[in-house]
Amino acid sequence: MTLRDLFTPLALVLALALAAATLAGFVLVPAGTILPVHWGISGQADGFLPRDAALLLLPGIFVLVIALIWLSTRLNAPERVAGARHGLRVVVPGLLALCLVIQAATILIGMGQPVDMVRIIVLALGLLFVLLGNVLPKSQPNAVSGVRLPWTMASPANWQATNRLVGLLMLLAGLAMAIAALLTSSPYALLAVVTAGVLIPLLAGTLYSYRLSRR
Hints:
It is a single chain. By secondary structure, the protein is mostly helical. The protein starts with a helix and ends with a helix. It is built from nine helices and two strands; from the N terminus they run ααββααααααα. The protein has a two-stranded antiparallel sheet with strand order 1-2. The chain has two domains: 1-115, no CATH class; 118-215, no CATH class. 33% of the residues are buried.
């Protein structure tokens, strides 16, 4: 699998939009501005970087993630990664969209605009979970993406059933995150929804897959 396989036309457009937003940030945010890059459970920013480092952080993280995905596909035999092609071509634009939203919000903060970053992140994360929830049931056994457990990798039927269940739970979790972000600004409530949205599909999928393997 090549980098061209990972970047659909939509992904390329979003990548260009992220690059444009980053360049715009250097123009719109005054030099020397200190920008928040991390928020604690109280909803208050507790991690900061100078403007240049803050604006390059998300593009850098995305490049690193893509490099790791590409390396993973190169280290496995083609037949072990073929089933990941469809999912990755959907996930990459989703990750780019998430980075773009957070980058735009960071620039607004640097321009002095009031932004509730926690709500924005939870809303964007919820939409990403909805996207992932739709992709997982369509995935095929592979060594790169999906619910890769010893029991799912050993049985195509187990893989299909487990990824279908986890996909449904992630979709519901994503909807819950998005609705919570629209209805409340309480960081503690939002953290609880996100934590449940991550752990429930993970734990339920693992237990379900294991029980299927024991039948």
